[in-house]
Amino acid sequence: MDRRSFLATAGAGGVAALAGCAGGDGTATEGDGTGTGSETGTQSQGTTTGTANGEMPELVVGTYGAFVDAPSTSPGPWLKQAFESEFDATLRYETPDSEVNYYIERALRNVDIPADLYVGLDVNMLIRIDENLDSGLFAPVDGLDRRDTVKESLEFDPRGRAVPYDTGYICIVYDETFGDGGFTAPETFDGLLRDQYAGDLLTQNPVSSATGKAFLLHTIKAKGEDGYLDYWGNLQENGVRVLEDWTASYTAYSNGEAPMVVSYSTDQVYANEEGENLAKHQLRFPNGQGYANPEGMAMFEGTDRPELARTFMDFVLRPEVQAEIAVRNVQYPATTTAELPESFAQYAQEPPEAVTFNYDTLRDNLSEWTSAWERQFVGN
Amino acid sequence: MSGPARGNGSSSGISVRRAVAALRRWGERRALTVVAAVTALVLGLLFYYPVGTVFVDAVYVGGEWTLGPLVDVLTDPFYRQIFRFTAYQALLSTAASVALGLPGAWVLSRFDFRGRETLRSLTILPFVMPSIMVAIGFVATFGRTGTLNRLLEALGLTEVTLLYSLPAIVVAHAFYNAPLVTRVTTAAWESVDASAVETARTLGASPRRAFRDVVLPQLLPAIAVGATLTFIFTFASFPIVLALGGVQLATVEVFIYSRVQNLAFAEAASLAVVETALSLGLTYAYLRYEARMSSSGRGARPQRRRPLWPASWTRRAAATRLAVAGYGAVVALVFVAPVASMLLESVTGPQGEFTLDHYLFLLERQRTGTSYQVRPLTAVRNSLVFGLGTLALALPMGVVTSVLTTRDFRGRKVLDALLMAPLTVSGIVVGLGMLRGLVFGTVVFGTRVQVTGALAVVAAHAVGAYPFVTRTVAPLLGGLDPRLVESARTLGASRVRALLDIELPLVAAGVVAGAAFAFAISIGEFDSTVILAEGSNSYTMPVAVQRYLGRRLGPATAMGCVLLVVTGLSFVVIERFGGRTGGRGGF
């Protein structure tokens, strides 16, 4: 099944690249492909010749568990198969439990990093890296053919290390069938404070959960730095419930514990695939906005396969690969050129307006904002 | 080992036999020392060293020694409030666990009924349940549309909102810890000598008086063990608090976790130091109490159990049985309903229909899973192998520690408390320490020494498990008549012989209970497993449950049910087999 969908989507390009590889006689040197905007085939040629005695080069990709091992669909296995069948390389996944922290820890302790790439970086992790390490951990990436197809609005690293490959829009998912039916979520943040919604919203800990953090940041966007704590005071009075993480809150939501949960705007894509009742997966973008939380990939500074890593990144940005990742990871693609299947376009919703804080603002304020929130919310 | 000495009577055979016998005698004499040394080594390497590396963060910041972070935490009113709340909820949880656990011990040790032993074995099952599964089961049982409310509705009563409140946390903690109270108390109750009770009765004591004067003093240390452990565990509780209470009711451990995630190590370590100091202090206080309480002169004949269905229904017999039935109903709601909810979830499809898809997913993953994915059977096998390995390591470690700490010497209680430390340090801190100290390795004489893989996982599990063996065995061992060992020693038995042949059979119930705990700790352990098994195929069942979590719960709950069935069967086997071999640590 995986194989067939791969052949259907990536057929022609793959053949050409394979031909390019087969034609290579191993004379090209490692540096050849850099920054010249050459074809993918040539780049992979450069890397295959990089290894001694014709051994297959191995690209080690660090990522989070769900990227390769979610029980539903995860893009990892497909990506590995598609990449390996086109390029003369093997792809090995590493899924450390503490995710990117694992690599920060290694760098802090001066232990070598075996991975070449990390997939699944977000702006918060990037800030954590920059706060804890003098080196950036990742190297700036240049020379990608498809770099400029990435949506400008999703770029989150001013130093050009992270290349966005997909994004989630965080919004409110609500259950129309809740109670006696006919439930609708309020259209604004202020609406959430109304009596009729008392105890109706579930969200996640903004200190440790990505969706929870996005929701907190969205309230800061809406209410301002000076107003968000008051707003949360009112939310708390109205019975908002903040749980550990997305899984815990979504479980409670699925069990009918509350009619609204902070989640992703791609919720219906999954619900549709699973044959669930879509009335239980309605979306609301508060104030007509969705908070964008793009995921990026980046190349470790110490990698000895920069060419292969670049080849991989370019591969990920291909229109058909972007579509496949979006569907399998249930996220939006990051490029303007992705060729999304109709079912995805039908059920995923992009917010009328996407909002997000940029790297600089977050680096200067994030820890202060969250800790002020924590002290107010937990102290009560 | 004794191969060459077998089979012929030649002179060389005799000398070899003599040599082997001498070796065995030497081994027997030194066995305690050897096991104690291994214990110290394993503890040092897999516990004190890694945890030490984390605690240093609290006092060594930016290349300088300082008390700053510790003082910051201690003087911050916000954190003081968090510590107060943490202690408060732990106190409530402990009271609830003891209240829920004691009747269980009474029923299990004083009544006879079909399946009693199986039920007794299964009391440990909640202990291995991954917390996310408990949370799922609790939401389904006590939630807005849960079993309890549907029951209340059917009875025409008003609905209750229990979730996201302190009572929800307390009940969930009781779910985890009441069985612990039940187990240690049952083990002690079964070790009560029937003749002492009979003597009291012959001397004219009423059954109530005999219980108060003879039985209760022997149960109190066990109840105190259960209560102390419960307090320590619930003090460091984290996933349950967040899943069922929410961030409003956060404990210290929640803050340690979030600080570690944000790499704010000095703050995390300071919080952990204070948390550990409090837990260790409590352990020390308990140990002093235990030393005062231990009574002597215990024999081997347990009291006779009453049939659950009495021969004649006197008013008294009926009242007793009514109490048992009432307790059964509470047990059904608190223990059976959440587990049943999880089972139900594992066979429920997206529209609420019956389906086996989630189990088919497990089969499919087993068949087609790749090297970087988690396969169910590998997880089952690893869990069992690690569990047995942990038993093999933790039982001797725990027994020897309990022998050492029931001897009299200066500073014994301090040593004992330090030996109990693995129970008091948070899993997050141990995990982080292992990551940095062992997984990344340390440079020794120019070479990087790393500790990972299956053996390290087993050793780490044993470190977490042996205090349970010690704490279930030591109070019983301390209560034995010292003359028993003395006479055996006078008759020429080595210390180990006396231990194996005299003492352990007398405290068999405690040893088997400890063994079950050791196995359960290994099965349920998560933090150090994921860290030490990194990148290898050493993942266990709880790790698999965690990995299968996603937008739909089915696969994770199906894996959770596999975990329950496999561990449930293992416990029954352990206790049946352990009971038969007389609890000699013969596994």
Distance between the termini of chain B: 20 Å
User: Termini distance of chain A?
Assistant: 53 Å
Could you tell me the mean pLDDT of chain B?
87
Helix content of chain A: 40-55%
Structural class of chain B: mainly alpha
What is the string of helix and strand elements of chain A? Answer: HHEHHEHEHEEEHHEHEHEEHHEHEH
Q: Count the helices of chain B. How many?
A: 26
Radius of gyration of chain B: 25 Å
Q: Biggest interface pair, residues each?
A: A-B, 60 and 54 residues
Biased composition (Low complexity) (chain A): 39-52
Keywords (chain A): Signal
Biased composition (Gly residues) (chain A): 28-38
Region (Disordered) (chain A): 28-55
In short:
Chain A: Residues 28-38 have a biased composition (Gly residues). Chain A: It holds the Pfam family SBP_bac_8. Chain A is α/β, with parallel strands linked by helices and 380 residues long.
Keywords:
heterodimer, A: 380 residues, alpha/beta, 41% helix, globular, disordered N terminus, B: 587 residues, mainly alpha, two-stranded antiparallel sheet, two-stranded parallel sheet, 26 helices
Describe the structure.
The complex is a heterodimer of chains A (380) and B (587). With 380 residues, chain A is an alpha/beta fold. Helices cover 41% and strands 16% of the residues of chain A. Chain A has helices at 2-23, 40-48, 65-69, 75-86, 100-108, 123-132, 210-223, 228-237, 246-254, 267-273, 306-316, 319-329, 342-347, 359-379, and strands at 58-63, 90-94, 117-121, 138-139, 163-174, 201-204, 241-243, 260-264, 282-284, 289-300, 332-333, 353-355. Chain A starts with a helix and ends with a helix. Chain B has 587 residues and is mainly alpha-helical. Chain B contains 26 helices and six strands. Chain B has helices at residues 11-59, 68-75, 77-110, 116-122, 125-128, 131-142, 147-154, 166-190, 194-202, 207-235, 239-245, 252-261, 265-293, 315-346, 357-368, 376-405, 412-419, 421-424, 427-439, 454-478, 482-490, 495-506, 508-524, 527-532, 541-547, 554-580; strands spanning 60-61, 64-65, 111-112, 306-307, 442-444, 447-449. Mean pLDDT of chain B is 87; it is low at 1-9 and 582-587. At the A-B interface, α3, α4, β2, α5 and α6 of A face α3, α6, α11, α12 and α26 of B.
